Amino acid sequence: MAAKSLDTLFHEILKDAYYTERKLLRALPKMAKGANCSALAALFERRRAQTEEQVRRLAQVFARLGKLPQERTWPVIDGMIDEGPEIVEHYKMSPALDAGLIAAAQTVAHYEITRYGTLKRWATMLGMSEAAQLLDETLQEELQAGAELSALADRALIAELRSKTLAFEAVTPPARYPEAA
Hints:
Number of domains: 1
Order of helices and strands: HHHHH
CATH class: Mainly Alpha
CATH architecture: Up-down Bundle
Number of strands: 0
Structural class: mainly alpha
Strand content: under 5%
Radius of gyration: 22 Å
Distance between the termini: 92 Å
Largest sheet: none
CATH topology: Ferritin
């Protein structure tokens, strides 16, 4: 059996990335439609447009390798991406829906950050500077998406805590302190 090279591994992981992005194109509209928070729905819509561009960039990387774009089915990716639409289905009308969608999206974003970081590094090592630049564009978008999701999660948590505090204050009588003499 011939030893496999970094070129071969790069191509295989590139197929994973292509599969991930194309699968996301089908999941993101469901997540946007299911989100309760309009800011989260808008983020998913922006991510869909971004993902379309990422698919185009990946096709350019395949072309630089002299190969047609290919997907490699990967059950781990299926599970991560399917989590978002499943949360929409199981948590409709629940206050936890958006938190679940954010968590699912963060899982995928962090996976993509590791994949694109690795692919960029390997492209650089393999002397594929144009591919490395294309992969870096996507890596930067994924880093930004992760930051935006974290900011939304923080705002949602703060709003939830405030609403619980206000609700608690509304039903809790004020503490009585003895008046100073």
